[in-house]
Amino acid sequence: MLHCLRSVFLLVAAAGAALSLSNTKPSTLSSGTLPIGNGNYMFYTDTGAPPGKSPYTTLFLIHGMSFNSGIFQKTKSDILRIVSVNRRGYIGSSPYTNTEFNVITNGTSAARQAFLADRGVELAVFIDNFLQQKKITQGKVSISGWSVGNIFSLATLSSVNSWPVAIKARLAPRIQSVIMQEPSAEILGFASNPNNWIPLIDTSIPASTRNPMTVQWISHYFKQGNFAVNPNAITWVVPSLSRVPSLFNMSPSEYNSIVDIGKATDGDFTLLINFKSQLHDSYRQVIFGSTVQKAFPTLKRSLFTGDSSVSFGPYAYYLVKNDTGAINDKSVTFRIVPGVNHFINWDDPKIASEVYAQLV
Description:
Elements: H1 2-17, E1 30-37, E2 40-46, E3 57-62, E4 80-85, H2 98-106, H3 109-133, E5 141-146, H4 149-158, H5 165-171, E6 175-181, H6 207-217, H7 252-258, H8 263-274, H9 276-288, H10 290-295, E7 300-306, H11 312-325, E8 332-337, H12 344-347, H13 349-359
Parallel strand pairs: 3-4, 3-5, 5-6, 6-7, 7-8
Antiparallel strand pairs: 1-2, 2-4
Helix pairs in contact: 2-8, 3-4, 3-5, 4-9
Organism: Sphagnurus paluster
Keywords: Signal
Signal peptide: 1-20
């Protein structure tokens, strides 16, 4: 299996080398840091107010594992203000403390629940501080998590009763939607599919190369079948050669500034393993829970994936659609975006902005 994959990677690398690097220029972004409590802070980039649009919706994007918010730098919108946030532990933002990291690795169930709620509160504080600093007194707010970022976007809403009172009073009435962008089953606390494969969990691969191989592998395009109704139609391992993988559309400097593998990546991966019940509870609170419904009575919920994405996006799409369909819940909007993969924000940023505009 590994030999086959390496052969595929070499073929695609040769194809990529024959092509020029992407000439799509990122929009001009402002950046900064904001406090989130307890002496911690988060780094962000901001596209600024859309020209001639007032009031407008501010969309906060939360990145995934091993990639920081630079993955969103090409995504801009004529109608949305897009703010991309670096989570704790990623470049420019405060690292986790040793105590916090110990909860990820060895915490009790109660400590894990508190840890997840704290991360949600931090993001709520960040959003409120951003709106106040930029004097955005009108317009709605939307939150979107990409990949592992869904853990933190969902936790922001499920932790609403732990928000500081003043922030809840200001912010809760303005939050209009949450967009789940390509989570995995594990991110939502579901059990893994028996066919699930990713280099990061394959012990036949040397430990030092699992992360680099994973970030390359997930950026490929995959030939997926009708996964909305049949998980057996999902391609789990071998990529398609239909398009050059997204990482081959990055220059070396772009790759080095966006791919962010370190202790935070280890924390994200360990969190996926150790927090299953807490993650599933957070997901179900946002989709079905009365607490979230009461705090955000008009909240729009949506999930989208590309039809050429790595297996975990399509599988989570199937699971959530099946989960809501089992009780005939039609409150979640589902979208399959044709022709795109897990890196829609890098390879197809215009399509990404159009999808966001439709779902906010």
